[in-house]
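Re: the 499-residue chain
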Amino acid sequence: MAEYAGALDQGTTSTRFMIFDHSGKVVGIDQKEHEQIYPKPGLVEHDPMEIWQRSEDVITGGLKKAKIKASDLAAVGITNQRETTVVWEKSSGKPVYNAIVWQDTRTDKICNDLAKDGGQDRFRSKVGLPLATYFSGPKIKWILDNVDGVRERAQRGEVLFGNIDTWCIWNLTGGPDGGAHVTDVSNASRTMLMNLETLDWDDEILGIMGVPRAMLPQIKPSSEVYGEAKGALAGIPVAGDLGDQQAAVFGQTAFDVGDAKNTYGTGNFMLLNTGTKPVQSKSGLLTTLGYKIGSQPAVYCLEGAIAITGALVQWLRDNLGLIKQSPEVEDLAKTVDDNGGVYFVPAFSGLFAPYWRSDARGAIVGLTRYVNKGHIARAALEATAWQTREVLDAMNADSGVALKELKVDGGMVYNDLLMQFQADVLGVPVIRPSVAETTALGAAYAAGLAVGFWKEVNDLRANWGKDKDWSPKMDKAEVDREYKQWKKAVTRTFDWVEE
């Protein structure tokens, strides 16, 4: 009898394989980073072959560290960095170009040209998304327009598109030798090509973008058996697929309307469960698919996507050398009592929710001779909390539901200074679960549900436990004053790119 469920968690900076027992506890983990490729300012790429190699490495490593055999797994799920776009040859499995990462801004002109007819919200009523460089559709178009011969081959069905989930599942289930070419509703909803109502590719938008249907994966539920794994996981059902943020919703068991979670990773992503009907945002949020379990109705979310949060700490570490290890940012920030009047708006690849300004670039404002590196570190952490506050304000406006508490997960939630400040600026308690790696857990849950390892979502709710919480302590007048300054700082980043 299989006692565990596994998850391949393919993120923006690293890949890991995690193994969970029936109670949702971690029994094994292996993780490896992959190269970030920056050909020019604003351009970000990954090598899909390196990502798949790292995936194979961590699967083997994870099983070894857990001291179990593949046959001890009931099923394996996939979760992934979303919107990152891969196009590859069906016959060989060789990518025709590097993966274009979600943060990449090269499709700016494509998006602006598409917006000339109907504006930035041209497709929003169908797909829930504004025209922005973030999403996969324009990235596919860029590859078809710029890599010789690929468009013709795509029309003949000789090359395939996938976000990273599709790339990993295809390789995991055999690749050129009969690999399953599938995606789930949550990932498909990030392409700008899927109709929110039909849960199928939208032929009108495909025609406008010039993306042949023949290259697109089949859209499936998030919890369903897609095929059997080959290689190190030979014979194990591949049965769960969720974009990383939707997987965190699943792992946080945010299954009720009004439940919300915020993931603190490379970027920040707050999702609010809105039930089985899509809610169109008037406040700069995304309408996205949360998940679909088998034949049950799909569940929708409102999402506030923030491009740069944890990546800002990495930038302080790698580009400025201000710290040697990411966790050191908290100690550095604690060397000062406040931000010294400094605000750091990390619009490195434009601003995402609620602004959607690809013309914005990063700015540090309020500098004086008094300011030292402690203030810069503190301002960097505070930027994460302020950006989250802006998204929460938009969510309250769209949903009419005032948030009572915020469930948090991801790497930055172990930073007590940040979590306390987050509670202060939101004015609600912030709660960290006992398993903070909810993204991988959500993918394992989706896979386990598909094969009956967990019977129903209530089994998953019983697994959720609180590790720590933070309550607001800061004076509201002070929060309001600082928030006003933050908003002023944000406006200083607008209109920087003039092309």
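The two ends are 60 Å apart (CA to CA).
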